[in-house]
UniProtKB/TrEMBL annotation:
InterPro entries: GntR_C, TF_FadR/GntR_C, Tscrpt_reg_HTH_GntR, WH-like_DNA-bd_sf, WH_DNA-bd_sf
Residue intervals of the HTH gntR-type domain: 26-82
The protein's name: GntR family transcriptional regulator
Organism field: Paraburkholderia ultramafica
This protein's record includes keyword rRNA processing: no
Domain of life: Bacteria
UniProt key word Transcription: yes
A GO MF term: DNA binding
Annotated ranges, domain GntR C-terminal: 93-217
Keywords in alphabetical order: DNA-binding, Transcription, Transcription regulation
Length: 230
């Protein structure tokens, strides 16, 4: 009797592992595309297209996309999945959460940074600088996301880490608008440099202050640009 129970338990466990691995791969890839701005505000994500791309059935794709829906990255429609359209109120709330969490998290991560983190942050800043010089908003967005992921990786609290990543990713339409503006690109680059300096000096107080100023500036620039479009 004992051997039969063990045999029954083993089969679904092995199947679930394979399914989860493929779903996770698709989830990470689609989320990365959303972070980079590869998916437009009105562009539809279709499960069968992604299934063809990954040469798999639609089931793991649906699971990955539904996870993104649950986390607020996407909205399901009768004709695929799209990015949510955030209102000004939504944007204010996202920035409020960021102001409450990111400065403290970045300051706390300062002591956990290593030489490897330092090298990555320096490299990414140089990439951002080249993107700015070339007026390449897409490359600057990618550098912005990568820079955040490096210092965020040093945050010891995994739940805090994931919460910050999720809320900053939800503000993709903010990055798409602000970092397409040349004057805002300079502000973002200067903010990244100040953060880099604080991280390299292991100055938690400076990092906390700089991060708060960085977030406040991003919020202000977004609404200035939105008002200019109306």
């Amino acid at each position: 009797m004992t051997m039969q129970v063990a045999k029954v338990a083993k089969t679904p466990s092995r199947t679930e592992l394979k399914q989860t691995t493929l779903t996770e791969t698709i989830y990470q890839e689609v989320r990365a595309r959303l972070q980079r701005g590869d998916v437009g505000a009105n562009e539809r994500i279709l499960d069968y297209e992604i299934a063809n791309e990954f040469d798999c059935t639609r089931m793991p794709v649906r699971q990955a996309l539904l996870r993104l829906v649950n986390e607020g990255y996407l909205v399901g429609t009768t004709r695929g999945f799209v990015m949510p359209m955030l209102t000004n109120g939504d944007i204010h709330e996202i920035f409020e959460v960021r102001r409450l969490l990111e400065p403290s998290a970045a300051a706390g991560a300062t002591a956990a940074l290593t030489d490897k983190h330092d090298a990555a942050l320096k490299r990414i800043y140089q990439n951002a600088r080249r993107a700015y010089e070339k007026h390449d908003g897409a490359a600057l967005i990618a550098a912005n996301v990568e820079f955040r992921d490096v210092w965020l990786g040093a945050v010891q609290n995994r739940r805090l880490q994931e919460t910050i990543r999720r809320f900053t990713d939800h503000a993709q339409q903010v990055r798409s608008l602000t970092l397409a503006d040349s004057s805002t690109q300079k502000i973002a680059l200067d903010g990244m440099y100040d953060l880099l300096s604080g991280f390299l000096e292991r100055d938690a107080k400076r990092v906390r202050t700089t991060m708060l100023e960085f977030i406040l500036s991003a919020e202000q620039r977004y609404f200035v640009l939105v008002d200019g479009q109306e």
